[in-house]
Amino acid sequence: MTKKDLFRLIIKIFGLYSAIQILFSVLPATLSLMLNQIYSGEMIAAGIFLLFVILGLVVALFLFLIFKTDVLIKWLKLERGFDDDIIEFQNFNNVNIIKLASIVIGGILLIYNIPDFLSNCFFTFKSSIGDNQSDSHIAFGNLKEHISLVTSLLNIVIGYFLLTNYSFISRILKEKNKGEGQ
Question: Which terminal residue of the chain, N or C, has fewer Cβ atoms less than 10 Å from its own Cβ?
């Protein structure tokens, strides 16, 4: 198996997993928000528009991750940093395992935290433009929500760093292992 085939497989699995995760977590939350807005009689069109935007993003993300994996592999430069073009699992050494683990962990961090970050940004924006006289105004902005927003942003940055700098991380951990062995 070549390294490009392995990354294609991993990205397609991530695409399927992220589509399932978004459909079963973000979509129901958006539907409940939209139904709450319809029930209270405010911003029906905005809720429906938000629903279609989220569905469009889910479908676009799924299609991109499934059918445009080569573009993503080139953009993230995942092929670089390996010694051989062919990955043999019998000869999978510690450095290659660290590289693969860094890519997988970075991808998981991105997939889990991008929806949280986007929804927190949406609620922050919505609470900042809402009028303060209505009782149906979304109260967003206490310390817990801001911590959640900052945490999801930090996880996205760390995930991106792990995804794009896996070779650097493996070199650091390899040097650390040599120092511990002596």
Answer: C
